[in-house]
Amino acid sequence: MFDYILFDLDGTLTDPKLGITRSVQYALRALGIEEPSLDKLEPFIGPPLTDSFREFCGLDDAQICIAIDKYRERFAVQGLYENEIYPGVAKMLADLRAEGRKLAIASSKPTLFVEQILDHFEIRAYFDYIVGSNMDGTRSRKEEVVEEALRQMLPAGMTPHEKRDAVAMVGDRKFDIEGACAHGITSVGVSFGYAQEGELEQAGADFIVDSVKALFDVLTLQS
User: Second label for 153, Cα 20 to 30 Å away, from 131, 145, 163, 210?
Assistant: First the structure.
């Protein structure tokens, strides 16, 4: 039984495509780069913005700073709300809490934005702990986020075996699976998010599910 469950946010509990990709468009436009296809910007969903702007757009450090500032300029007032909670998520969270599970958010998105999104969808009360990145760009790696979430939520002295049996990390990208593996906890990948084909398998996910119902069944060990 997983008594402690960490959830990624984007692509796992909500579908943030419009808000993220339109805010990336806005940021790139400020640098004179036009990208009309939102689909081509889907890889921005999941990893830290710094990595994405460097890897997918070839920006240097100075340009990345400008891009992140412009991204947040739009995202903070508009992109946050261009988002949809996946059907069944709120009930799943309520049912897990009713069973006494401890729930946490472990997201590379800044904690400030995470909290606003959870409030917007009225699901913040289900979470005992909310851990995101810092606005200055620190603690943006998923391994760092998971480490802090585990520090806050787990009792001291748990053995590695106890952690693996009692703690699960749920996410839609390889970064979530890698973050779980780095700390010896069970990883659950959701294929309804934004992973590329075969990404979750290659990352070594312990479980892969294709629906919210199937996710609940895995987290409660129902066959």
Answer: 210
> Residue 64: how many CB atoms within 10 A of its CB?
20
How far apart are the C-alpha atoms of 123 and 85, rounded to whole Å? 10
Cα–Cα distance for residue pair 51/192, rounded to 1 Å = 23
Among residues 3, 8, 206, 217, the one annotated as catalytic is 8
Give the pLDDT band of residue 197 (cuts 50, 70, 90). very high
pLDDT at 143: 96
**pTM confidence score:** 0.94
Asked if pLDDT for residue 193 goes beyond 90, the answer is yes
Q: What is the 3-state secondary structure (H, E, C) of the chain?
A: CCCEEEECCECCCEECHHHHHHHHHHHHHHCCCCCCCCHHHHHHCCCCHHHHHHHHHCCCHHHHHHHHHHHHHHHCCCHHHCCEECCCHHHHHHHHHHCCCEEEEEEEEEHHHHHHHHHHCCCHHHCCEEEEECCCCCCCCHHHHHHHHHHHHCCCCCCHHHHHHHEEEEECCHHHHHHHHHCCCEEEEECCCCCCCCHHHHHCCCEEECCHHHHHHHHCCCC
Residue 8 is among the residues annotated as catalytic for this protein: yes
